[in-house]
Amino acid sequence: MAEVLLPRKMEIANDPSKFGSPDPLHVLAVDDSHVDRKFIERLLRVSSCKVTVVDSATRALQYLGLGVEEKSVGFEDLKVNLIMTDYSMPGMTGYELLKKIKESSAFRQVPVVIMSSENILPRIDRCLEEGAEDFLLKPVKLSDVKRLRDSLMKVEDLSFTKSIQKRELETENAYPVHSQLKRAKI
Amino acid sequence: MQREVALIKQSLFDQGYLDEQFMELEELQDDANPNFVEEVSALYFKDSARLINNIDQALERGTFDFNRLDSYMHQFKGSSTSIGASKVKAECTTFREYCRAGNAEGCLRTFQQLKKEHSTLRKKLEHYFQLARQAGPKETARRPK
Known about the structure:
The complex is a heterodimer.
Chain A: H1 2-14, E1 26-30, H2 34-46, E2 50-54, H3 57-64, E3 82-86, H4 94-103, E4 112-116, H5 121-129, E5 134-137, H6 142-174
Parallel strand pairs in A: 1-2, 1-3, 3-4, 4-5
Helix pairs in contact in A: 3-4
Chain B: H1 2-14, H2 20-27, H3 36-61, H4 66-83, H5 86-101, H6 104-135, H7 137-140
Helix pairs in contact in B: 1-6, 3-4, 3-6, 4-5, 5-6
């Protein structure tokens, strides 16, 4: 009996894909410059992130379902881990976008990074005060993106690790007789 | 052939047409995206041609709306920075300084210089990319997968 059950138990314990793996970070990038959009998209893809790029703050709000006609239907599943926005954009600026995001209940927890070609201290202060996660000087470096990704992955890993531990506990409880086999898993 | 490509690229850096940002762009190329820099470059020249046109028209009007001109030049400088177009970027900076000083003559003079640098860079990069394509992927694709 034990031999029949053993392989299956080992399979569950040793196959991480059964628990799934952390999803890649999904980043929403906002920039009115076509060149900069292409650049930031590439930086993010090279850093193994899933990317959505839009050309204005208005479109970003629409994407998030925070547009003029605010619709919450269908946006509960939208998972955005990071928003990176240019500061100077025609119409709504990155700063105004930041404020709108921090005002929304659905997305205020999402870190927002401001990018700007101008190193203006009061501007930086204002953005950080409004809740920006970081302020990056353009041109953005790959190392900047990787640093952001790594710090966000730590948060994701933490919650992922906790969900793994929870699943393992549940599995152990389902097979109490075989609990000694768990020590054999990787 | 690849050596020729390498030499051309080196001279673009040595003569100050391109700066480190261009190298950053090359670092983002790989086997799956071997033409990334050329694509960005094409986008840049398309965008900047439009901006040059807008600025030409604005200057022709003779009214010198310095705010508007500065705004155009801010965009121009931004994309020039992103691609590593060093000399063009420098002309943009000078132009903006003249805008802030309300110096129409300075703006006109600088803009002529800017257009010249822009045109030179476009020709040199077109030549470089053409040779690089002929030489094969080894020279352009830099980042290991």
